[in-house]
Amino acid sequence: QVQLVESGGGLVQAGGSLRLSCAASGRTFSSLAMGWFRQAPGKEREFVAAISWGGGRTYYGDSVKGRFTISRDNARNTVYLQMNSLKPEDTAVYYCAAAGQSANWYALRGGEGYDYWGQGTLVTVSS
């Protein structure tokens, strides 16, 4: 079983930056593709970003392209989400998710196929 623990959320002013971290355990980290999602109050969960097993491929949701960067450190079993130029509409609970080696990358890019989820970390962007 894979455990995912997010950290790094908090309150930030519009235009500011935050870096989220997600520490994984329970499986060899390089065998997991990773993703970030978010859910704002009263809204459906939204795909934010994905990174492939080795880190060579990344993909972003349209609303965060050019502002957010996903990365991973396989030696630290951690995936990151660097968020720059934050906007009030980025306010949400951010979730880390993982998928095993059999997952389809194109499905993962579409927000599908993730097997494991963290508890989430709240990001609040004030105007």
Characterise the protein shown here.
- By secondary structure, the chain is mostly beta strands.
- The protein contains one helix and eleven strands, in the order βββββββββαββ.
- It has one helix at 105-109; strands spanning 3-7, 10-13, 18-25, 33-39, 46-51, 58-60, 68-73, 78-83, 92-99, 116-117, 121-126.
- The strands form two sheets. Strands 2, 4, 5, 6, 9, 10 and 11 form a seven-stranded mixed β-sheet that branches. A four-stranded antiparallel β-sheet has the order 1-3-8-7, with no helix packed on it.
- The chain is globular.
- The termini are far apart.
- 34% of the residues are buried.
Question: In one word, what is the shape?
Answer: globular
Give the oligomeric state: single chain
Rounded Rg: 13 Å
- Helical fraction equals under 10%
Note the main sheet.
Answer: 7 strands, mixed
Mean pLDDT, as a whole number? Answer: 97
Strand content: over 45%
Question: Which blocks of ≥5 consecutive residues have pLDDT under 50?
Answer: none
SSE ordering: EEEEEEEEEHEE
Count up the helices.
Answer: 1
Strand segment count: 11
Please identify the structural class as seen in this structure. mainly beta
What distance separates the N and C termini?
40 Å
Keyword list:
single chain, 127 residues, mainly beta, 7-stranded mixed sheet, 4-stranded antiparallel sheet, 1 helix, 4% helix
Topology:
Blueprint: E1 3-7, E2 10-13, E3 18-25, E4 33-39, E5 46-51, E6 58-60, E7 68-73, E8 78-83, E9 92-99, H1 105-109, E10 116-117, E11 121-126
